[in-house]
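Look over what follows to help learners.
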Amino acid sequence: MYTLKDTVTYSIKVWLSTALAAPLLLFLILGIAINGTQADEIVQAAPMLGFMVVYGLLLSIPAMIVFWLIGHTLFKRSSYRNTKSVLSVYGLASVWVSFYFFDKGLPDRGPQQYLWVLIYACTMLGCVWIVPLRSGMHPSASP
């Protein structure tokens, strides 16, 4: 049986992992792979990266509270994989909705903005499945 501590810790780990990894991936993919930015220019942009992390953490608080509520409820009543599947769908939807509302609508920003959302959504999806529910538990294990 999963405890309140298990589900809170899991949600916080997914939240922090997503908030830290997504901006870094965004910088690497957009900066180096797409725009041909040099590595030293990315290092110089570290304050912007820090801002993105803090901004992302603050704006995602409501979505992550709902994420925790869903996870806490489902981990008690449903299988481990079903719960992570539902959290995956919710995570993807919450990223898209958050970007839509906080970025004043996606279509107006152009195709590169969709790449931002895609990177954040994929990072969230990966974190849902990679982060174990309990410490020492293999992420794909079904207790």
